[in-house]
Amino acid sequence: MTKRDQYAQILNVLRDIHKDHPSYNIGRHLSTALDGYGDIWGLSNKEVLFALQKYKAELDMDVPHSDNEIEQIIRDGEDLENILKEEDEEYGDY
């Protein structure tokens, strides 16, 4: 894949991300996608494309939860020891 193709793909991924998450600005997307890369001055188009594709996939997997779902997750977390104990009893203690 040529640098020109990678550049076009970067723009397409950014366009798709903006379409799916219009309330986020481009700075937020770039900052989050490239977090951990340190100085991005010498980052290749290939690396930027990979980071943006990975970020987009993470956004796509992040689904909103209702207040009831969040409360249940918290309750389950508070009772994690009992849940794990029940699983051990159900599947056998390894």
Task: Indicate the topology.
Layout: H1 3-20, H2 26-33, H3 45-61, H4 67-78, H5 80-91
Helix pairs in contact: 1-3, 2-3
Structural description of this entry:
The model has no long low-confidence stretch (mean pLDDT about 90). The protein has 5 helices and no strands. α1 runs parallel beside α3 (about 45-60) and α2 crosses α3 (about 45-60). About 70% of the residues lie in helices and about 0% in strands. The protein folds into 2 domains: about 5-60, no CATH class; about 65-94. It has about 90 residues and is mostly helical.
Largest sheet: none
Radius of gyration: 20 Å
Q: How would you sum up the global shape?
A: elongated
Helix residue percentage: over 70%
Averaged pLDDT: 88
Subunit organisation of the chains: single chain
Q: What's the helix count?
A: 5
Give the count of structural domains.
2
Instruction: Label the structural class.
Output: mainly alpha
Are there runs of 5+ residues with pLDDT below 50, and where?
Answer: none
Give the strand tally: 0
**Order of SSEs, N→C?**
HHHHH
Terminal CA distance reads: 48 Å
Percent range for β-strand residues: under 5%
